[in-house]
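Supplementary Methods S3. Input chains for the assembly prediction are listed below.
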Amino acid sequence: MSDAPGPLSGIRVADFSTHAAGPFAGLMMAEMGAQVIKIESSARLDITRRPHPMYGKPAPSFEQVNANKMSACLNLKEPRAIELALELAKVSDLVLQSFRPGVFDRLGFGYEALRKAKPDIILVSLSSNGQGGPEYNYAGYAPLFAAIGGLGHLTGYPDGPPVELRHGMDHTGGMLLAFTAVAALCAKRRTELGQHVDVSVRDLGSSFIGQSLLEYAMNGRETLRQGNRDDSAAPQGVYRCQGEDEWVSISVGSQEEWRGFVEAMDSPQWAEGDKFGDAFRRWKHHDELDVLIQEWTAKHTPNEVTEKLQSHKVPSFPSLSPSQLRADLHLEARGAFPTITHPEKGEMRAVVPPWRFSETPSRIDRWTPDLGEHNMDVFHGILGLPRSEVETLEAAQVIW
Amino acid sequence: MNSSENTSPTAMGGLKVMEISSMVSAPFCGKLMASLGAEVIKIEPPKTGDPSRRRGPFPGDVPHLERSGMFLYLNTGKQSITLDLDDHQGREILWELTGKVDVLIHDLPPSKASELGIGQERLAEARPDLIAAAITPFGSTGPYSEYVANDVNIFHAGGEGNLLPNGLALDVFPDRAPLAAGSMMGSYQGGLSAAVGLCGAIYAKMGGSPGQFIDCSTQEAELTIGYMPLQRLESEGVEEDRFTRFFRVGGVMPAKDGHVEILTLEPRQWENLGHFLGDPDWASPERFQDPTTYGAEINRNMREWTADKTKDWLYHEGQAAGVPVAPFYTPGEVFESPHQRERGFFVSVDHPEAGTYDYAGPPYRMSETPPVLDRAPLLGEHNLEVLGSLGYTTDEIVSLARSGVI
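Predicted structure tokens for the full assembly:
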């Protein structure tokens, strides 16, 4: 891979966000070469620095989200820390924050205060419900905003309850935050304007169900969850294969794909007749069809099914577990798990950035910093405070 | 919100984007670029158009190429030209267009892109200023780069599918297949992820970098948002599965009119939840602190407690009591949501063939360069304009139409 700088090299981001979604946006920018400074504090440790309420263990498994970043401490309960935060904003291009709406303003560096400090600052704010509206200050985590945004209702088996969506939803929110942040940087290059970007992750959930919202607007009809199925492909599903908890996904959308599918199964007699002869009949007899398909898939591994079907141009792929992903030959060929060096654990693999730029490569190459690891680099190196003052402020629990 | 009538600056005003795409991923990427004010020209096959034009939903359930909800939603703010890319002249026009735009978004496997004359190498050589993003299921390199996949395949290929469902749905159906998220979430996410990289490349080019190729694999986009189980495997050697991955307290709870989600991650929230439940013995702070022992019992009792209350009561009263709770809203409830209505999330969009409906708007606001939402194009609506700008005369365009090239 080329050593060229990433697309956002030269950009500095002051990342005040916590939990998963906001820091994930910082990670995306750091992978594109921005200098991202995570501002955190011993006074209120980010959840990724504490034992997790569900998994019990502290940081290691949650570390990737703060990789490639610098860590600087500021105890925002201290007025001097607020001053330093504003100083840092002055020398940054962009500030990320995910406090409950209103909190950032109360702390003394809301958008107006930031703009006074730096007129062309970009502030990107993430919240469940947005910075205004009747429910603006309601608490939310990923499964909550997926639920209220409508995506949760559409996830699940048709005859069962809805399903909670978790970190994937958080990180998708972070992805949207990164999109708006980089778009705002582009806007600044064009117009020289800074601005405040307000991202509501609830709205993101709703923006992913746009066609169902139009179904309601057009016909007053509610869309229902449909498991692994889809309106326009039959058969479509996830089928049990040989082995324990082994599954393959299959989606047959066209008549051509159906013919390929039948051939791939060596043309069993049941598939040749009229009963499943066209898309409508396959849709109508879908349950019966699923039983027959599963009799076939159960005799093969997910990879065997996939190879047979893909050679007939039929959409199919194994449902991969974490260890299967890590061992997947395609992902290995693409270098999807680059090795980076962890100070204590030695070499560990991370997940590659989701874009391969031919000219301005993105990369993940530095593990999550220790809490406050870059205090001196940031407050002395970037802000120009004397080393002794940084040490004094550390002792006074301001840089803390 | 910006609209075509007002004149606020936009983030990407003046940027020209060409899109060769179908269904969800690449169209959503293009839609996001259009929402930033870019001029997006979508290339569709003559007569049939993007397959999403046949997906519906249709007003009154009457199929019509210009009235499909999925197309109308995913292609807001774009222009449409029709071009037969299997035809020599069609490819000629395609190539001419690559010289007129700043960005190309497509969802073609590498062999097809090369066949159409827009493969990575040719573009790098002859269109060095162009930024081209290929959004494909498995990326443009590697053994599966030519594999075909729909949303369900991609979601399960990226790892998240194998880990769903958890909690209540798994309690009810422990033997069923793992599950893709609804509403083609993986495809949407793939388009969103690609848009981030695209904006990065656009930013770099504004600063003097050359044009470039961006290989966007939707499988890797899923992997990126689903990195946590991989990180646990790598650092702790613990493999997550859908049976062990659940919240021992809370999660999906039944309500009188549907379901709610309750999630308490902080000790303060456990206390609030105890009070909200009326401080019963089964929900004491000590028990919340030992979810492994008491989680199942707490949940059993809590489900009984929530089951006779409405979603909105639980939502508003719970939030007032400091308990993170939210209703599972149906699309209709989202559509009517007072909060999103007051925030102006829904935008009325008028379309000459489909009629006027409220659409989900952009999921972000920008104070100085507000996003734009304009209607989706008719099939080939901009043929004259776009081909005219390439120097084709009206007679030539008419002839191209008659011969089926456009």
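The longest strand of chain B covers residues 39-44. The longest helix of chain B spans residues 185-206.
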